[in-house]
Structures are given as C-alpha cells and as structure tokens.
Amino acid sequence: MDTTRNTVLEAWMTEHCYSSNSLAEAVNRAIERLTGHLGGLDGSSVRAWKAGRVTWPKSAARKALEDVTGLPAVALGFVPRSRPSSTPAPPQQEDPDMKRRTLVGSIAAAATAAAAPGTASPRRIGMSDVNRLNKRFAEIIASDHRHGGQLGIEQRAAALAEEALNLQNAGSATQRVRSNLYASAAAFRSSAMWAAIDSRRYDIAKAHMREAQALAEMSGDQAIKFRIWSHAGTMYRHMGRPADALAANDVARNLHLTRRDPLFASLGLARQGAIHGTAQDRTGTRRAFEQAEDAMLRADPADYRPVWMLAFYDQAEMDSLALCAHLALGDYATAEYHAHRCLAALRPHMIRSRAITTTRLAHAQLAQGAPDAATATAMKVSVEAATQHARVTRMLQEFGAALRATAPGSSTVQTWTEHTAAWRMAA
C-alpha cells in the first residue's frame, strides 16, 4: 500500500491551527449538520489521513471535511479511488514527483475555480485575522477592568464587532474562521453590553444584548453564549428584577459547557447566589455559594478558557458576588467579611472592582453602626472612580445620604462633605 504522507492536508492544518483531535471534532460536527448524527471520527482518523493510510475518506466524512475547510478533497491532497476494472491493472509505480505535481495542480485548479468569474483571487481570511481582532479585544477587557462602564469602551467594543462582521464579506474563509469571526463579534458586542450595564444605560444594554445573542447563535460558541446570558442575568439583577435575572442566568447555567468545565459552572452558581440575595432567598443564597465553591475547587486551572473569563473570575470575584448578596439580605457582618476577603485577593488590574468593593464595604460598616470607620473606608476610593464611573458615583451618593441620616450634624458628615467637594474639584 502506498502510504505517502498527505503533506497538503498537514500544511493546511498547520496554517489554520488545527490539531488532529480538533479537526476530527470539527468534521464530526459538520457530519451532524449533514446527516443529523454526530460523526465518529477521532484524532487517529485524521492521523490516518495525514499519514496517507487513507487516501480517499468515506463520502460523509469527505463532504464534511470540505465544508469545514472550504476546499474540495483533491485540493487537500486526497486522491479519488479509480473504478474497478474487469481486467486487473498491472502494478503501477507511482512517481513521487508526478504525485506532487498533480496535487499542486489540483490546488491551483481549486483556487482558479474559487476566483471565477474575476481574474484575481479574493482575499483569504484566516485565523491570523481573527487573532489580530482578539488582541484588540484583550485591550478593551483590560480597559474595562481599569475604568468600568465608559462610553468610549462601549463604542470601541461595538466598532470591533462591526469590523469582525465586515471581515465576513471581505473574502473567502473556512467554516472554522467564519464561526470564530461570529464568536469574536458576539464577544465584542457583549463587552459593549456590559459597559452599558455598568453605566446603568439598560435600554442600550438590551440592544447590544439582542445583537450579541444573534451573533452567538451563528457562531455556535458555548462560552460566548454563556457570557451573554450571564450578563443578562446581572443586568436584570441590577434593575431589581430577580425573576428575570434567574431566568436569564439559568439559560447560561444550562449550557452543556457548564458540565464540561466546572469553572463556568462555578461562575453561573455564584451569580445565581447574588440573584437569590436580591430576591431575599437566604437558603438559595447559601446553597448557591456552597456549590460555587465546590465547583471552583474541581476546576482544572490548566484548561483552556477565553480571555474574558481568565481576566476576572477567581475567588475574589466570588467573594464580591457574595458581598453583594449579603448586603441585599441585610447580613452586614457577613458582607463585610466577604468584602475584606475580596480586597485581599483582587488582582492589581481590577481597579474598577476595587472601587466598587471598597464602596460596598463602607455601606456594610455604616449599617453596623460604625460611621467613622465607614467614612474612612469610602474615602479610599480613587478620585477617578468616584467621579467617572457611574455605578461607583451613585453608590457613594447613596452612602453620603445614609451617613447624613445616621449621624446628622456630626464631624464625620462634615469630613465626608469636604472630601466629596474636593473630589468634584479634582475631576
């Protein structure tokens, strides 16, 4: 048997960042779309293709592979089987150079066909284009953690979403690249949604949400679907609509991704706990955070996860959500406990989260009858966060009102009034 390696397929896989296992998974999904039944290929199947042990895959696998790559099988180095003849043909000595020329010719023919009827080949969109967009997305994520829900962040994220969609029409691409472009556009739009939520512009956030949901469906990406529905749950919680918040968060929690990756399950449960707090469900709050802790302990830190997940979800974020829940429940001592744990574990880039947690800590201390300690805590919030971040500004205004109601006419109120005046002058 001729087992000349299929170097054309190997080169295509290298260019498009596919391993044998990931290509087998993509082809299996394509088979499912074609036949209604998930394919049974695995990494060894693809390795057999690359090694030349299989020179012409079965029809369903071949058609699925063509759908994934956007190329005919012959252009991927496969050689059709000749029809059986009544007279056995003599053994054929294949000239390796001839085979190479045939394959190169096939690829050239496929490229020519793709370019018709024009004379120039269309631009080929690849994973390198997706990766360039995602590097800029990482910059937006970092900016969000520093500054929070700024209009500029929302606009940059929305513009990146449009750029990703424009790439869809800029040239030819494989199914994998197109799915990744839709996933990237959905991720960018969900960041715009989050920026709008963070600045309490909920109608605009809902518009971003609808666009993000449509893009996520086209991508088939479970992680971005989780992010969007989880954001929706948080949005409804901030709006004081716990029933809607639970329904949206349940969509995220019921994705099969949460069964594959305990860290996603943990985030869904922690956000559920915060919603239960808003709904005044003490038992639900306690149970959800216990389950979230357990799921986080089971998560493998080495597993691949998207940049937005790695950038924020850890024990500090879980404590931040627990702080939120216990504040809503009126359990101020427990809220203070989680605030201190959160502040101790927050990573340096989480500037926005530090400001929010510090403000919530001040609320918890004031509610326990410690206005001096609470005021000292609130004064630790940076000028930028206090004056430029809508959610922090509102929370500090509420703190000032509660302080004046708790200790009217006191020197502590005077200190706070002078401090906030200085903030406004420095802004």
The biggest sheet, with number of strands, parallel, antiparallel or mixed sense and barrel status, is:
2 strands, parallel
Return residue spans where pLDDT drops below 50 for at least 5 consecutive residues.
Answer: 83-120
What series of H and E elements makes up the topology?
Answer: HHHHHEHHEHHHHHHHHHHHHHHH
Apparent shape: elongated
Q: What is the typical, i.e. mean, pLDDT?
A: 84
Q: Using DSSP, what is the number of strands?
A: 2
Helix percentage: over 70%
Distance between the termini: 77 Å
Count helical runs: 22
* Category from helices, strands and their pairing: mainly alpha
User: What is the gyration radius calculated from CA atoms?
Assistant: 28 Å
Bin the strand percentage: under 5%
Which strands sit side by side, in order, in the main sheet? 1-2
Structure description:
With 427 residues, the chain is an all-alpha fold. The chain is built from 22 helices and 2 strands. The chain has helices at 7-15, 20-35, 43-51, 59-69, 96-115, 127-147, 151-168, 175-198, 202-219, 222-238, 242-253, 257-260, 262-278, 282-298, 307-312, 315-329, 332-345, 351-367, 371-378, 383-388, 390-406, 411-426; strands at residues 123-124, 171-172. The longest helix has 24 residues, at 175-198. It is elongated, with a radius of gyration of 28 Å. The model is unreliable at 83-120 (pLDDT under 50).
